[in-house]
Write a structure and sequence with these properties.
Number of strands: 12
Strand order of the largest sheet: 2-3-4-1-5
Helix content: 40-55%
Shape: elongated
Distance between the termini: 109 Å
Largest sheet: 5 strands, parallel
Length: about 525
């Protein structure tokens, strides 16, 4: 016998097996038990929610010789004939390929009824106006708005709901047990979620996964491989790269996805959905009720929702929603995705309101992480601008404790040429060093250079031997000295004795920095 797809093999044959449409099942069974059967029904709803299945069960139930609680018995000759498709008084018509209506059989099931031609609708309307007592019409459609109002007003309308993830997952688990297939609960729930409210779609996806890994346990990772989907951990990693403005890191994440065979259209859709969940977590008082994710993923979403604001998330969703429409028919999908990621990382590329707000967010974050300081050198009668201690900062309010020992001369030389040293580095490392502060141990006076990054981006280089070697090589080339370097992030380390490196008068001539010269008020008087 040839193989039968799961959605056909396990199609419900009585009302009790219909899942997720209890409001419709209860109404129809009550009508059958009370013999209050209408002459025309309209079943509306998205694909795979059970419209045609319920129509066939209803056709059997009204013709069954021994109905059981409003459901067909599936044992009598009439039930068996209808099930086999040989009954002459039940006709199923696909309106997508049939444009005429015949009126001599008892039950007509017209699928995709919105596809009927104008002439067919007129003929159907005439029959519905004066229906014979032995005729029942069951119309099914996914687009009820395309049906003439004159038809709608003569039918009992039933709207089929999207089936919940829990209901689909429970049904899938039941069928897997019947098929003797082992599967992880997480894998089953993911397939149920990808069904998007359609039991048939979920069953088709499950059938595909089982066939690919025939005879093996169906795991979450295997389902992701078959469906070309991406784990939420990857979305989390990508979002953090975007929030930090790391274009190179974002492109590398995309490269890994493409190398792993992930489908870009699916990735765009899933990442948009991920950001949508973040937005709901950010704005909802009870996010547990708003989104359907595991407690582990919900904890991660709550953490990431605190890293950004609502306006930024809405901008991200807008960009990827636009991308979702563009990528469908694009020949260079990767290029479009890369451009979208760059837009997320660089709000300055756009001029609309939400992009401007995102740019303000970045500036505010930078100001919070390291307040802007202005160096002012006062010219005095005795020593002029070069005297130690003449420099003051506009934002300094607390006197720092004076270090016990002066900085070693080698470190002073490095700081004297710090701007030139940083200028020889490259990429994001250079950007981080431009905001970093070179320090030393003021208690011991050891010749160890501590590079203190002022924002979280520096975490990428704390334990990065390549970055450390690059900086050491540049310093060695400029000073002829090899220096030990420790990299750390402000407020993230335990070193309490670090002090900024000041330069003696003998080395001050090597300093290159922008200063503001302020005249001494005593001189004017």
């Amino acid at each position: 016998m040839s193989y039968t797809a799961l959605y056909r093999k396990f199609r419900p044959d009585n009302f009790d097996d219909v899942k997720g449409q209890d409001h419709i099942v209860t109404t129809l069974t009550n009508q059958i038990k009370a013999n209050r059967i209408g002459h025309a029904y309209l079943f509306c709803g998205t694909r795979g929610t059970g419209k045609t299945t319920v129509a066939k069960i209803l056709a059997k139930a009204v013709n069954c010789e021994h109905p059981v609680n409003g459901s067909p018995c599936n044992e009598c000759a009439m039930c068996k004939a209808i099930q086999a498709g040989t009954a002459m008084n039940v006709i199923e018509i696909d309106a997508a390929s049939n444009n005429g209506v015949e009126g001599k059989y008892k039950v007509y099931i017209i699928d995709e009824v919105h596809m009927l031609s104008t002439g067919a609708f007129n003929a159907l309307l005439k029959t519905l106006e004066e229906p014979p007592s032995y005729v029942i019409f069951i119309l099914a459609t996914t687009e009820a708005h395309k049906i003439p109002i004159t038809i709608l007003s003569r039918c009992q309308r039933y709207d089929f709901h999207r089936i919940s993830i829990d209901t689909i997952a429970a049904r899938l688990s039941e069928l897997l047990t019947a098929e003797g297939v082992e599967a992880e609960e997480k894998a089953v729930r993911y397939v149920a979620k990808k069904g998007d409210g359609s039991m048939r779609d979920a069953l088709s996806l499950l059938d595909q996964c089982i066939s690919f890994y025939l005879g093996q346990v169906l795991t979450y990772d295997k389902v992701l491989d078959v469906l070309g989907a991406v784990d939420t951990e990857v979305f989390s990693r990508l979002l953090r790269k975007v929030l930090s403005g790391d274009v190179t890191g974002s492109i590398h994440v995309l490269e890994d996805l493409i190398t792993g065979g992930r489908e870009l259209g699916q990735f765009v859709s899933d990442f948009t959905w991920y950001m949508r969940n973040l937005l709901l977590v950010k704005t909802s008082e009870n996010p547990e009720e708003a989104i359907d994710v595991s407690s582990e993923n919900l904890k991660l979403l709550k953490e990431e929702s605190g890293m950004t604001d609502v306006e930024t998330l809405m901008r991200y969703i807008r960009i990827f929603s636009d991308l979702s429409n563009q990528i469908r028919f694009a020949s260079q999908k990767r290029v479009l995705v890369e451009i979208a990621l760059i837009k997320l990382c660089r709000p300055a590329m756009e001029t609309n309101l939400d992009s401007v707000l995102d740019r303000l967010r970045v500036l505010e974050k930078q100001m919070e992480e390291r307040p802007v300081q202005q160096v002012i050198v006062r010219e005095s009668e005795a020593g002029g601008a070069g005297e130690p201690g003449a420099a003051v900062t506009g934002t300094a309010t607390v006197q720092q404790q004076k270090p016990q020992k002066a900085a070693p001369e080698d470190l002073q030389k490095i700081v004297a040429g710090w701007r030139a040293i940083v200028g020889q580095t490259t990429g994001l490392f250079k950007q981080s060093l431009q905001r970093a502060v070179p320090k030393y141990n003021g208690e011991t006076g050891d010749p160890i250079l501590y590079v203190e990054f002022q924002d979280f981006l520096g975490m990428n280089y704390v334990d990065n031997p390549e970055a450390k070697k690059e900086l050491q090589d540049i310093i060695a080339a400029r000073t002829g000295k090899s220096v030990e370097i420790h990299m750390l992030v402000a407020n993230k380390h335990q070193h309490t004795n670090l002090a900024q490196i000041t330069v003696d008068d003998a080395l001050r001539e090597n300093i290159h920095m922008d200063i503001v010269v302020e005249e001494d008020p005593d001189e004017e008087s």
